[in-house]
Amino acid sequence: MPAKAWGRHSVKTRPKEDDQSMTSISSTGASFAASAAGMRPTVSVRSSATTAAAAPADPGTQVTLGQSTGSSVIYAKPQPVELGQFRLTRAWASQDRDDISTLMARNLGLGPSASLADRWRGLGGALLSRFAATPSDYQQTVAEYQAPTAADSVAGSADAQALDKSALSDVSVGAATVSLKIRTQSGQTVELRIATNDGSEAGSSSGLRVEVKSSGTLSQAESAAIAQLADGLDEALEGLGKPGKPQLELGKLMDFDRSVLSGLDLDIKNPKPSQPLSSFSLHVGADGRSVAMKGAAGELAVNLQSDAPVGASASQRQSALDQHLKRFDAAAQRGRADAALVDMFKSAFSQLHNAQAPAAPGAIVALSGLERSVQSLQSGLADFQASFSGDFENTNEFGAVTEIGRAEYQVDQKTTRQSRGREGESIAQVVTESLNAESKKARNRSMLDLQSGNYDLTKVQDSRTITTLIETAGKQVTGALRKTQERQMQTWDQLVEHRTQQHRETPGGRSFTEQLALR
């Protein structure tokens, strides 16, 4: 590996035309030969906090840093280099040097192969913390691009400035973006954005862009509540940006002071199809909570229409959650769904249901005997809609694909109440599930060859409906029962040269009614 040669830095002060002093930093040769393996080149312009060890001086790049704290672009004139060598030039949209700029420089310095988690690390929390401490709008952009070689060197500061402007603008082209919108009870909004780009797409530049702004002045309590979201945002982005398998860590972000903040929306879009995460959205508000996610493993969605019913105990909710998680596993096993997708679906379902809005201090939930009886006969969960779908494949010990398929699963709960006037009320809570799956599997664990038409085709179509009916009269429950209807169908076809040689159907199902004990 070629050795790095770091140049010496000399600092001198010269008068500007308007008599304001400016600092000129001359950095000598910092380039090195790029290996065929694609080693990361030397960055010719660094933040002011970066230092370098002494080395023999050679003609270098001169960067002029103004003393103003405005938003002018810092330009770094590309320096001609020897043939076979190249150098990256780093440009900043603002010459302010603060903790956020330091984080951006650190994360960008990890290179184009860094994961989204690496590029996002610490930035979201730092932006919220800064805004809470100094409630003013903030933005910063850093871009990194390859400077011209000796053969095509650009002369003149005007051309260098044009290169920098173009690079800074191109950071947004094909970037992965994070958007967080926070709403306060007083009607103010705070918006945060992070864009990160590895520069791999045509017309794009490697870099980072961050921004945070508000619609108006925040109170002390609102600033404090926003600051408390910092760790939760960092934790959520760390999990979602993992390079192999995204993870949902949303608990802290959803645990905010509802008396101060009315809700939030987190949205992520990643145009890189090769990465595990394509899109993600989280909504938390008075109208409920929802998560939607797409990635290499498939897609999922969970939508809760409200908080859990008032008076439902934590143990009752947990028991209902456990039952649903077991059903998810059973459906995934029967449909041969991708394990990573099912794990994320279960995590999203559990975390949204467990993010119960805290009761106001001193609030007392007073339920009548009738309401407590009705609540105990229901699930204790908020009504919801949830689904996952995705392709899957299995391989043999040699890595050859032996099976491919797709599984789609849906589940929802809906509760309705119908008054019968003086006679009482009818309450129905209906939970429905459906599974549709298909797989094509090679025989004898050999490689699957769809073109030959020699494989086994399996299809699954299952459904379940559980209906809880409750009747009340006066101040008591007069009747309660639960009806369950299950239908299962699995078909298997042996195909030889695309023609069915054998066909088998395996139907199943049951239907029964339970009388529920009145409480």
Query: Radius of gyration from the CA trace?
Result: 30 Å
Low-confidence stretches: 1-84
Please state roughly what percent of the residues sit in beta strands, choosing from under 5%, 5-15%, 15-25%, 25-35%, 35-45% or over 45%. Answer: 35-45%
Shape: flat
Distance between the termini: 77 Å
- Spatial strand sequence of the major β-sheet: 6-7-10-9-8-11-12-13-14-15-16-17-18-19-20
Q: Give the number of DSSP strands.
A: 20
Report the average pLDDT across residues.
83
The assigned structural class equals: alpha+beta
The helix/strand order is EEEEEEHHHEHEEEHHHEEEEHHHEEEEEE
Percent helix: 10-25%
Number of helices: 10
Main sheet specs = 15 strands, antiparallel
What does this structure look like?
By secondary structure, this protein is of the alpha+beta class. 21% of the residues lie in helices and 39% in strands. The protein has ten helices and 20 strands. The chain has helices at residues 99-108, 116-120, 123-133, 157-170, 220-227, 230-240, 251-254, 314-335, 339-354, 369-377, and strands at residues 9-15, 21-27, 32-33, 61-65, 85-86, 88-92, 138-146, 176-184, 189-197, 206-214, 261-269, 277-285, 288-295, 298-304, 384-395, 401-419, 425-441, 455-473, 476-496, 499-515. The strands form three sheets. Strands 6-7-10-9-8-11-12-13-14-15-16-17-18-19-20 form a 15-stranded antiparallel sheet, with helices on both faces. A hairpin with a 2-residue loop joins strand 13 and strand 14. Mean pLDDT is 83; it is low at 1-84.
